[in-house]
Amino acid sequence: MNNFFVKKTIHFFLLVLSVYLLSFFLVRLIPGDPVDILAGIGNSSVDVALIKEQLGLEQGFFGQLKKAIKNLVLFDFGLSIHQGTSVNDIIKPALLNTYTLAVTAVIISILIGIPLGLFVSLTNKNEIINIVKKICNIIIAIPSFILAPILILVFSMQLNWLPVSGMNSHLSIVLPSLTLALGLLCYLANMTLDCANDLKENAIITTARSKGLRVEKIYFVHILRLISLPLVTAIGMQLGGLLSGAIITEMIFSWDGVGKILIDSIHQRDYPITQAAIFFIAITFVAINFILEFIYRKLDPRIR
Questions:
Q1: Which CATH superfamily groups domain 88-303?
Q2: Which residues belong to CATH 1.10.3720.10 in the chain?
Q3: Residue ranges with strand state E in 120-242
Q4: Are 190 and 136 within 8 A, CB to CB?
Q5: What residues have CB less than 8 Å from 133, skipping those under 6 apart?
Q6: pLDDT band per the 50, 70, 90 thresholds, residue 2
Q7: How far is the C-alpha of 83 from the C-alpha of 106, rounded, in Å?
Q8: What's the rounded Cα separation, in Å, for the pair 254 and 136?
Q9: Global confidence as pTM
């Protein structure tokens, strides 16, 4: 167990470092000079050289790389080129908003998707199973940039139940979290339904039936325990898509998260914010997979 933990920890840090360095190279390949965007292209009244010196952009490529690695070690991403404030102070509230949105979406997906799959399997009616699977497949196929306007049109414009965008109301999180949750919810419902149907003739389930246990208990205790490992795997695999979907969703709903900050910083060529945003998205994704490795080992003794 200790060797496994050490190996995974080393792999974790190497992967995160690789992503950070890759983001450093890629953001500098984007056409455009941040100083020109900040000062205005062709603005001769501004001392461009002085601005570059203040922002640390007068250094060569390797000088900037050395500074970036030093900032990473110190966990200090410097100052924003456009806002002039600490990147850490900008990223922290954005991270909290993104995590709140993502966690809410995951909770909605798990609390509705898994029970839905079990209930539909419990009915044992092919008509209901086929209808639910078709509806779920349609929703899964709809990308978030199309699903979001549909939800806005229905719940905000027509019914006037929820705010269109922004973060001014405690209900503001409902539409963006639903946009993120629906795809994962339907995916989990489909997977739970298929797994439950496959296990109906399992020896454990047959034994439970022979003991006279209630059907509900068989499904929501025994079958749920048997399908826990594939469900955890599915949730882990889909979380990456959830994070990438959050970027688009945050832009549509004006949700002040890391995704919105990332897009804005790319437009403004704000290198420090872009690198920090990519770094925290990457570290979140890697950390989730890191945690899932340990959950697998707890759920399945065969891989210990």
A1: MetI-like (1.10.3720.10)
A2: 88-303
A3: none
A4: yes
A5: 190, 193
A6: low
A7: 33
A8: 27
A9: 0.78
